[in-house]
Write a structure and sequence with these properties.
- Helix 4 packs antiparallel against helix 5 and helix 5 packs across helix 7.
- A hairpin with a 5-residue loop joins strand 3 and strand 4.
- Strands 2-1-3-4 form a 4-stranded mixed beta sheet, with helices on one face.
- It is α+β, with helices and mostly antiparallel strands.
Length: 256
Amino acid sequence: MAVVPDKKTPDITLYTTQTPNGIKISIALEELGLPFKVEKIDISKNTQKEPWFLEINPNGRIPAMTDTFTDGKQIRVFESGSILQYLVEQYDTEHKISYPKGSRESYEVNNWLFFLHGGVGPMQGQANHFYRYAPEKIEYGIKRYQNETRRLYSVLEKHLVDAKSEYLVGDKCTIADIAHWGWIEAGPWAGVELDEFPTLKAWADRMLVRPGVEKGRHVPDPHRMRELMKDKEAVERQAKEAAKWIQQGQANDAKK
């Protein structure tokens, strides 16, 4: 077990943008009450592919984070799940968004954290792509990933119903909830309506009223998913604009 100083001073810089993955980290930081600096990464201009950023995350994706480690040297942390676990291990000594390491509950948190990173995020991300960004509408791809996203949402729905708890693991908001929230909120963007999953929708609403979620979701820009989905023209306009740079980015990657 790593030895964590009682008074480790954060020196955190978060490299992020307004996406479901990005806001996981700012929400967790706010829930923990940690100070941090923000560097907004413009993924529409491929800033995340620039050499300086690749030194922080070789995969060229957000979010990423730097901090001063226990040895006094800078440490880089990338992949949102890894960042969440780092924040818990280094700073959550009071278990505000976690359970004691080695406890039954801590392993259950990991179950749902990896469920998100291995399932919900990748499948919903593909649903987003085929439904909103692909240069041609491929019905098979749209249905395949929307249906898989619905199936994963149904797993969450059943779990919350059966567990009879306010959050994914007991009656405490943990990094498992934080990791899921931005993706569940963005379900309609992928063509998956939350009205199909009333208990999951109630969980999302419960998360939204938390001060840490409310503050953290607006980093580095305002989070307006619910408002956006009420304006069909704005949805179509934003999807069209995003499709241009997403497709261009894919073309650039293909040349490497």
